[in-house]
Design goal:
about 220 residues; alpha+beta; Jelly Rolls; Arc Repressor Mutant, subunit A; about 40% helix; about 25% strand; globular; DNA-binding
DNA sequence: ATTCAAATGTAAACTAGCCGACAAATAGGT
DNA sequence: ACCTATTTGTCGGCTAGTTTACATTTGAAT
């Protein structure tokens, strides 16, 4: 891949903002580049060499499967995020994969070992990275306590608000979200059954709080949700 | 505090193993030291200056309270762990505190800002720290999927096995755990009601899988749990 | 245009676990 | 040794949410 292109890929990721232009140009640690279409699966754990992945375009979900075959959606990711062996340690136990949710997904990756070298040479980058992982953990913890203390209805509301905040187009209190998730996906995200999710979404629609279809979700007034 | 003492405190924490003796001696960033008795509360979020805490002796639980007053036990910690603003970012929203579970708890702490400086100057330490946080996140994720896919009974079993692994005294497959938790604590850890926890513990005892009292828990054969 | 698989809608039966309420046992303080 | 607060034990009634099962709608492919 052209050095120039690598530069642009790294440059517009939050994580590398602390680096100067010349520093970024020196990195050039990107070794992989992948395109995927809706539904494509991208294996990463227990794959060949451990890597860190940067979603560049499109949306993907991280799914894990336990011994009994239960699927859990761990995260929904897009540009600006990271996935892979974020703990910088290999772990063969976990069985996770990523799945493209939209067409035209592109992802680049670098080797864990290269990234580690880079961190050792750039302490401030290491610091940003740690903060990044810490933030991720914080979000996770928050989900966890929602799951423990809140019922499915309010988990759906928080999820929708969250989603709107991250990707929605605002017009005052009205938000339009491009909907690349099925109701089954939403159900898994908020940890409930598909039927319950359907029920709750329809209820929100009946109360005119949202307008839902397969292409978009419109939240009439996010403050009322 | 004597420099000598600080040295010993840092030296036997996993995190600082990668550093040489002379490096450790240069640190001396410990600024706080606190002793607590069973039941004492140690506030740390939204306290004065952000800190990182090192439990030195005894057991503590991290509890968080949300807007509606729901208590969730986040973690049980002991020597070798860390708590505080692990994401290295201040966060006034979260309302967490630590509570001593055993008598003679002692904790030392250093300022977040001091620690950050230290990380920037010691890239390899930054790396270990990142791995440490990453590992914590991994454990957290594991809990999360247990909560989603497993019922209370198997959550109790995994918790007991985990606890045994971390602190139990093994004699073959038999394990003795010093029990500093109430059934209510256990219930909160496995995210169920106190009554259900009591029920399940008694059921395990009736099946002769464990022997339970307030001082200790004996697991007859951990492989059968 | 037709076909077919995936996604959505709906309903009844069922159940794990919660909640409230109270009794009994235990331990720590004076 | 006594008092009191905390912890543990136990019991129905209750409910949110699951499960099973089937119908309908939608959209993409041929």
């Amino acid at each position: 891949m052209y050095e120039e292109l690598k530069y642009w890929y790294l440059r517009d990721h939050k994580l590398f903002w602390t680096l100067s232009m010349s520093q970024i140009k020196q990195l050039c640690i990107i070794v992989g580049f992948k395109k995927a279409k809706k539904g494509d699966v991208i294996y990463f754990s227990s794959s060949d060499v451990p890597r860190i992945f940067l979603p560049k375009k499109g949306n993907i979900k991280i799914v894990s499967i336990d011994e009994e075959g239960n699927e859990t959606i761990k995260e929904i990711l897009q540009k600006g995020d990271l996935f892979g062996e974020l703990s910088l340690e290999q772990d063969s136990e976990v069985n996770e994969y990523a799945k493209a949710l939209t067409d035209e997904v592109s992802i680049c990756s670098f080797l864990l070992s290269d990234f580690e070298d880079l961190l050792v040479r750039n302490p401030s980058l290491a610091l940003s990275y740690t903060k990044f992982v810490g933030l991720k953990m914080k979000r996770f913890k928050n989900n966890y306590s929602n799951l423990v203390t809140k019922d499915a209805k309010s988990r759906l509301s928080s999820f929708l608000k969250d989603w709107a905040q991250r990707e929605g187009k605002f017009e005052g209190n009205k938000v339009v979200i491009e909907n690349y998730l099925t109701q089954n996906d939403i159900a898994q995200i908020i940890c409930t059954s598909r039927q319950t999710a359907t029920l709750l979404l329809n209820e929100l629609e009946e109360r005119n709080l949202i307008y839902y279809n397969r292409r978009e979700i419109i939240i009439d007034d996010i403050s009322k949700l």
